[in-house]
């Protein structure tokens, strides 16, 4: 009786099944809450109108007095971020021949990493690759002195933070939430068990909270880039006081020659690299326009 040929008799090529699973990472809250502006490369000045003229009532035949108006410049400075990922040349060939989607997924992840860099740099002054502060960023959003230590009621924390912004003469128009704090808010309940904010669901894609635009990202708490976390739970503020833009956007490039990241010559090591770069420019017009909600300091024993 002849043998029947089956796949058990054949060595199948080692391939990756279609579709690549990846852990979702949130992007930038600043890009959501503060609209970007066109910017030219380099340092520039934003004129802030900080002394408003006041009207004067005058009697019939009376002299008119002067009114004061003043502009103060705020500097924007460039901050360059890049992502460079190298891999064996065979990965490129396999991706091309078998349509694995590896390079596409890498490209998407690189874009997310650059978006997160905006938050980590402008909010915390953090270099994402090391998870530590960088001396190239002089001023960051968390430098604001408006601080609220979180308590048992997330809604009260947010109201208190908003009050600090209002006391500074600003109108809160945005709330940025860490993912864990968004969960706390979304699951906050009245004593009878009813949810205070039923429209928030599980707090994953919050777009509005307490009548104010909102955004959720793990960049607020800093995980996973900052191993110990930043201690920040949320930010409330007038996000028009944060100005930012992309001064240069260098799209994803395939690099096949040279030593682009100090890890050795690509050709000699049979490797290629993907790189994307962006130059952000940003400025804080007044840090008093923001308030931060932070993890309370541990009590001394």
Uncertain runs? 1-7, 16-22
* Average pLDDT score: 83
Number of helices: 5
What CATH calls the topology is hypothetical protein PF0899 fold
**CATH architecture heading:** 2-Layer Sandwich
Q: How many extended strands? A: 12
Termini separation: 85 Å
Helix and strand content put the structural class at: alpha+beta
Total count of domains: 1
CATH superfamily: hypothetical protein PF0899 domain
From the alpha carbons, calculate the radius of gyration and give it in angstroms. 26 Å
Percentage of residues in strands: 25-35%
Helix content percent band: 10-25%
Order of helices and strands: HEEHHEEEHEHEEEEEE
Principal-axis shape equals globular
Largest sheet: 6 strands, mixed
CATH class: Alpha Beta
Strand order of the largest sheet: 5-12-9-6-8-7
Q: How are the SSEs placed, and which strands pair?
A:
Blueprint (H helix, E strand, L loop, with lengths): L28 H5 L10 E8 L18 E19 H10 L3 H23 L1 E2 L4 E2 L13 E3 L4 H14 L6 E4 L1 H8 L21 E2 L2 E5 L15 E6 L4 E14 L15 E14 L5 E5 L7
Parallel strand pairs: 5-12, 6-8
Antiparallel strand pairs: 1-2, 2-11, 3-4, 6-9, 7-8, 9-12, 10-11
């Amino acid at each position: 009786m002849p043998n029947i040929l089956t796949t058990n008799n054949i060595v199948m090529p080692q391939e990756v099944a279609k579709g690549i699973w990846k852990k979702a990472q949130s992007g930038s809250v600043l890009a959501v809450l503060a609209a970007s502006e066109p910017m030219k490369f380099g340092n520039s000045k934003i004129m802030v109108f900080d002394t408003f003229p006041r009207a004067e009532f005058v009697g019939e035949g009376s002299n008119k007095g002067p009114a004061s108006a003043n502009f103060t410049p705020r500097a924007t400075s460039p901050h360059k971020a890049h992502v460079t990922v190298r891999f064996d040349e065979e990965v490129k060939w396999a991706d091309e021949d078998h349509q694995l989607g590896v390079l596409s997924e890498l490209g998407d992840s690189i874009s997310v990493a650059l978006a997160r860099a905006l938050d980590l740099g402008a909010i915390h002054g953090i270099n994402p690759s090391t998870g530590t502060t960088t001396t190239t960023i002089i001023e960051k959003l968390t430098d604001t002195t408006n601080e609220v230590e979180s308590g048992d009621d997330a809604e009260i924390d947010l109201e208190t933070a908003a009050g600090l912004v209002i006391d500074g003469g600003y109108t809160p128009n945005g709330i940025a939430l860490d993912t864990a704090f968004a969960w706390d808010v979304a699951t906050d309940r009245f004593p009878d068990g009813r949810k205070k904010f039923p429209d928030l669901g599980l707090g994953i894609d919050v777009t509005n909270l307490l009548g104010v635009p909102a955004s959720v990202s793990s960049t607020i708490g800093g995980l996973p880039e900052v191993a110990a976390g930043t201690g920040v739970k949320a930010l409330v503020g007038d996000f028009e006081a944060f100005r930012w833009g992309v001064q240069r956007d260098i799209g994803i490039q395939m690099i096949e020659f040279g030593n682009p990241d100090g890890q050795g010559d690509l050709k000699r090591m049979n490797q290629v690299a993907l790189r994307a770069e962006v130059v952000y420019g940003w400025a804080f017009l007044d840090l008093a326009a923001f308030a931060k909600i932070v993890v309370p300091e541990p009590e001394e024993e």
